[in-house]
Amino acid sequence: MDLEELLSTRLLVQGNSGSGKSHLFRRVLEQSAGWVQQAIIDPEGDFVSFSERFGHVVVEADRTPSELGRIAARIRQHRASVVLNLEGLDAEVQMSCAAAFLNGLFDADRHYWFPMLIAVDEAQIFAPSMAGEVADEARRISLGAMTNLMCRGRKRGLAGMIATQRLAKLAKNVAAEASNFLMGRTFLDIDMARAADLLGLDRRQAERFRDLEPGHFVALGPALSRRPIPIRIGPVETAGRSGRPVLMALPEASPEAMADLIFTAGADEPDTLPAPVRREPLPTRELLERVAANRAGAAPAPQRLEEEAEPDPEAEAERQAVVDAIFADLMADPEAAFRPVQMLYQDFVTHCRLKRVGDGGLDMAGFRRRLALARAGVGAAAEDENWMEVVRRSEELPEDMQGVYLLLAKAARDAAPCPSDEVLARAYGSHSPSRGRFLLTYMAERGYIAAETDFRGNRVVSIAGSDWRTGAGTSGKRTPGTTPRMRRA
Questions:
Q1: Are 149 and 72 in contact (CB under 8 A)?
Q2: Is the pLDDT of residue 125 over 70?
Q3: b/e per residue, 209-229, with b = 16+ CB within 10 A?
Q4: Which end of the chain is more exposed for a tag (fewer CB within 10 A), N or C?
């Protein structure tokens, strides 16, 4: 195989389960490990053994997408060979992690566009040909990352090497960008037809794919051969966790003894499973109390049913700290303020699963309230009676307005300048400044605030029921008849 030509023309491997695709991948990666930087997208954890034999760094996927993107950028900068281990994750989570990692490699600074071989096993997971059981957003992001790798990656030094069990399940625009092909044993007519079409074979010649032995492939491409030729894959130095099944004798035990083993709990497992605990949505006031308790280093007082066991305070505090970090990471994205709540909730749950904290203890209603606070930049303010009264009043507003009201209240409490229309709209999740003016009008008409304008046209907001008052702040709306002041060059 001409490795330099492979880096320019990419490779597609196809074969049914048991045809030897992983063995072929391992052979190519082992032979090229000393010549080119590598990144292996490993959905089953089969290639982690490369860390011991060839020094690949294993990147575990229990990270947020932004973390994976930053790690990928450093990988390109320092030319490290890595294995992204996605073992044990749901398909949707695997897609999100792989997309974040590939986008990080793709978006690296131009100075670090060194040649790099990107191996993606089970590529039909990350670039499916049609929508399945995963969310449309996860499929769109993953498919976009794989398309960038195969279509535009060459100019950035990235060479895709992908393997799939079935060509019919792989997106056509991803498969079509490869110029080198290794086709293994295939039985379904639709897959044989696509393989024959890629290799330029007729229907009769395509029948040969059914007769291939494991480890035998038909090769074609500028890095392999100008004409289709049969090849056999040689031995490998490393071994994966999985392999070909081997027959073994069954244990010799009587039916009674086997039944006793099956129906009796072992020493390391409980006799009964705990009953599921039903969660009730938390009000904004208790949500703020939890955040305040966590940031102060104290254990929060979670809402519990009477029959629920007392939770471990330290474990609960750690879990809340993880949830806080996930929200901070979500809000670090400049576009997070404008993304639909449903998509943000999917990202939030994905991050929670990666961090092993379940669903973060928040259903959709609780997430909306917490998100409103995060968008408004409202954390745990001093817990005096006046503030808690403001929090209580905020619960009377619609959920998506509560964060905006608390943002105004915090500015008034600190005598800070009144937030502009743009800031209020962003806290609400809108691009339109007029939405910020509407929110002020809505709350003023219902007696939550009083909005005034001084002689300079600056806005001042007072919080009803308190002596809190913001400083003068521009609304961001230009006064009629005026023009912006030009900056002197």
A1: no
A2: yes
A3: beebeebbbbbbbebbeeebe
A4: C
The answer to pTM > 0.85 is no
pLDDT for the residue numbered 387: 76
- CA 328 to chain CA centroid, nearest Å: 15
DSSP per residue, 228-245: EEEEE----SS--S----
By the 8 A CB rule, do 458 and 474 touch? yes
Closest CA to 138 of 175, 98, 102: 98
The one-letter amino acid at 411:
A
Query: Is 302 buried (19+), middle (13-18) or exposed (0-12) by CB count in 10 A?
Result: middle
What are the distances in angstroms from CA 216 to CA 160, 184, 189?
Answer: 22, 6, 19
Q: What is the distance between the alpha carbons of residues 436 and 372, in angstroms, rounded to a whole number?
A: 14
The token pair at 2 is 């001409």
* Per-residue b or e along 5-14, where b marks 16 or more CB atoms closer than 10 Å to that residue's CB: ebbebbbbbb
Whole-angstrom distance, CA of residue 320 vs CA of residue 441: 36
DSSP character string of 30-50:
HHHTTTSEEEEEESSSTTTTH
User: When comparing pLDDT for 13 and 270, which is higher?
Assistant: 13
Q: For the stretch 79-100, what's the b/e string if a residue is b when 16 or more beta carbons lie within 10 angstroms of its beta carbon?
A: ebbbbbbbeebebbbbbbbbbb
CA–CA distance, 112 with 189 (Å, rounded to integer): 44
DSSP one-letter code for 151: I
